[in-house]
Recover the amino acids of this structure.
């Protein structure tokens, strides 16, 4: 990574590393071939995150019972929420991949994104201690600590439940075109639902295009009801 890239990701996190080797390791995917990748830091970061979120909920919602706290906790620490945070902060642009993994859209993979958020938190804990990691976690989460009570739903799942509840056939996704060079492809996915107009969405991977199509279709369907 260049000095500018190191500077940018530290600005995103709001934390300056004493030893940037921890930062580099936290951003290094196993596909890179580097022995020191993010996997061990991910293990640690997951535990640090859990403690910080549990304590924040215990403090902020002093009148809520255990069941309510557990529901909030699950929504906040699950991989999908971490991936959303990574996407909001463009963390995927800073992950160190092999060329093949990068070309395959690794920086858009929700599992990888959530793992890297955890590894970064682990790295901050090792480099600066629990309190610094706590500050970064609360900053990255922002209002989600107070507002997120249920796990964010995948738009494809939400669309499927929506159409099934109305007795319609399952959504059908089909790739109708693929453009762009091999290292930066663009997938054109057509979404069809029984009795509704079809639509086409574009994405850097088939999965991304399908999710965009599902999101657009939900807006269309809910807007017409």
């Amino acid at each position: 990574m260049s000095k500018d890239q190191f500077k940018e990701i530290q600005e995103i996190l709001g934390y300056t590393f004493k030893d940037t080797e921890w930062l580099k390791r936290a951003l290094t995917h196993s596909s890179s071939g580097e022995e020191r990748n993010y996997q061990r830091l991910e293990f640690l970061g997951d535990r640090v995150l859990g403690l910080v979120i549990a304590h924040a909920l215990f403090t902020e919602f002093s009148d809520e019972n255990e069941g309510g706290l557990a529901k909030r906790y699950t929504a906040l620490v699950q991989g999908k929420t971490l991936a959303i945070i990574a996407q909001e902060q463009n963390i995927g642009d800073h992950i160190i991949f092999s060329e093949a993994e990068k070309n395959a859209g690794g920086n858009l993979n929700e599992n990888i994104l959530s793992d890297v958020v955890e590894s970064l938190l682990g790295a901050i804990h090792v480099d600066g201690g629990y309190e610094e990691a706590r500050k970064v976690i609360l900053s990255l989460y922002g209002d989600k600590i107070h507002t997120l009570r249920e796990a964010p739903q995948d738009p494809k799942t939400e669309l499927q439940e929506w159409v099934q509840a109305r007795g319609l056939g399952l959504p059908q996704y089909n790739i109708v075109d693929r453009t762009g060079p091999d290292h930066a492809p663009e997938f054109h996915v057509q979404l069809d639902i029984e009795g509704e107009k079809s639509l086409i969405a574009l994405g850097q991977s088939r999965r991304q295009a399908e999710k965009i199509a599902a999101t657009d279709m939900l807006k269309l369907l809910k807007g017409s009801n």
